[in-house]
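hey all, quick one before standup. I had two proteins in the batch that finished overnight and I want to keep them in one place so we stop losing track of which output belongs to which input. First protein below, input sequence then structure tokens straight from the run.
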Amino acid sequence: MSDAIELIIPNMAEYHLRNPSLQLKGEERARVVRFGGTYECEHSVFWTDAPRVLLLPQGWSQAWFDDIHKALDLAAPPVVSPRMRSGLLVDDLLHDGAAQNALRQLVSGYDVVKLTMVGPTAETYLLAALVSGWGHEVELDSVPEDAFWASLYLDSKVSCLDLARQLPAMRVAPGVVVGNWVELTGALRAMVARHGRVIARTLFGVAGDGSRVVTDAPGDVDAFLDHASGDSFFAFPILIQEFVEHAAGVGCPAADILVGPDGVEDVVLCALTVEHGYSFRSVDVGEGALPPVWGERLRAAALEVGEAARQLGYVGWMCIDCVAGADDQLYITEINARRSGSLHAGGLLRFWGAEKELTLSAHFMLPVLEGTSYEEHIRPVFQRLWDAGVKAYPTSIRALGWTDPIIAVIAAAPTADGAQAIIAEIRDSIYAVAGTPGQR
């Protein structure tokens, strides 16, 4: 055996479902399993160009996979796709002997197997033990099992409130944490009377699910309570904070942070686009994602939060989501103790060695008309761009067969405006040949 190989594990769905405090049910749970457990997994194709084996849930397109690697001038890695039993990638692998045997053969020539994942779950430690039993040294790119608590703790929105009492750069909006319906009702009425608009958020949400803005408009508090009572994301405790007005033209700053055993090793700047004040839609990634003054503030906060996490025993990728306030202050809204959804953009920047030169714009839910196909409508649009040397890619297409189909796309340019313009061109070109959603 020689050298090392990465086992790429896009375990987004089981990461979101890992916390025992979050007991999603029905449609809310099914949506997380389908979206995070299949659609978002395809972004992991772009995480790294290192020697690797990729875990992907069944249903990926071979034509798309081959096109992506040809466009990137990369050898396509082998893929293992366990039989879909639960829709949770690692759990399905642990219950599929044939997939385990295929994986064992693919890593057999390597001394070290590096588990590269979204974030740690109980199942990832079982997988590490399994691979170790095959005779390999196993390296985790996240916390060891005895520090798993730190990942759970940091991922809770309460951690922001705790760290804000300790860190100078950690500013949070004023708020209260409530533990039952009586407290929630009373606190909402008191907070909206004081601030006019608040945001109510559970400690563990997913891309805006588990958050909602509530105003002092007549009936709005009652409408929120009716909504929350039927939405399993809204489990107690619930954090209610003053809604921070967003600075115009900035987006919501965010940072991917690589925490090593001796300190912060990397910070990748991002700017999120959100709807309704909390629902995530797209992200610009790179040095050009934010105006310089906001980039400096964000980097200082990222270094401070990353060091605080390291002192708790945390290592690996994490991210912080923020609001650029209209009062010219940076507010941190949450910590995600995992790879963010935008880290495929960071992977491309590192692969190209263009961290300082390019900005990427990643759009995760570009709607397309029912009947749009990759081969007939999407591939020709991207092929023209590739022939012209444009760095743009469809990063997930498996939702083409869903009701209300969507695709995910990413584009790179020297500026964020330039990358967004390429995305707009891609959208318009697809609509020109396949039709515009909502027109039938």
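OK second protein, same deal, sequence then tokens:
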Amino acid sequence: MSAARDSAVGERPAAKKTKSAKTNKSPVEKPAAAKAGAKAESRTALVRRARRINRELAEVYSYAHPELDFENPFQLLVATVLSAQTTDLRVNQTTPALFAAYPTPEDMAAADPETLEQLIRPTGFFRAKAKSLIGLSVALRDRFGGEVPGRLEDLVTLPGVGRKTANVVLGNAFGVPGVTVDTHFGRLVRRWKWTDAEDPEKVEADVCALFPKSEWTMLSHRVIFHGRRVCHSRKPACGACPIAPLCPSYGEGETDPEKAKKLLKYEMGGRPGQRLKPPADYPGLPASPLGAE
């Protein structure tokens, strides 16, 4: 990446801040519903604010995408199962060798468990994950003709596949809209007061009710991108957040713009992303293969 491009990537939050200034809104301005003595936010106001946040995120993360490398529905399914309790980066560094050894469900169904375990060991919980991968591959071979099904009710019958994984596969491999509630998504939508639920299915239902179905999949990517790059769990970069004026939880993290900018991750901080093979429009650097970090 050129120095000019590095600079452009690093300055993305600042550019968004300038836009806020043009509309006479300070990036530290809090929404009326969050101010002391203000009336509770109405349902109509909540929907409007939520949809505005989505529009703002769509501008900032116009390149948002699933951060797992995959070339077909089976690879995405396997990668998503492996992503539990680890980073997408570690999964992406692990799957090239895995898919070279087991390119189809039939191949993985016949895998030697110990050999499979060693291939996926870097992702953690490798024994349980190997059991799930062999189990779901057997199910795909025996019940679905070696093809990944395109229905949620079928996907969730596969070993190791829950509603979150099913929505990832449906939305990104089949074009079926769905909201993916991972830890980042749940944390952010609660900070934004879109829901107060902790149960993932309730969170999904609450958020789906705020948006047209056509937005669900891309909304998920945008929120997760923002959670990984800016709105971190322990120390959100509030002072560098492009949607700070719309956030009722502004101030939970670092509000000084310069200090907040240092907290930005991946391409927002000028560093590599999580995919070894990112989409062509990704503005950052690709990740390094396993062992090359």
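Flagging for whoever picks this up: The chain has a mean pLDDT of 90. The chain has two domains: 11-65+180-269, 73-173.
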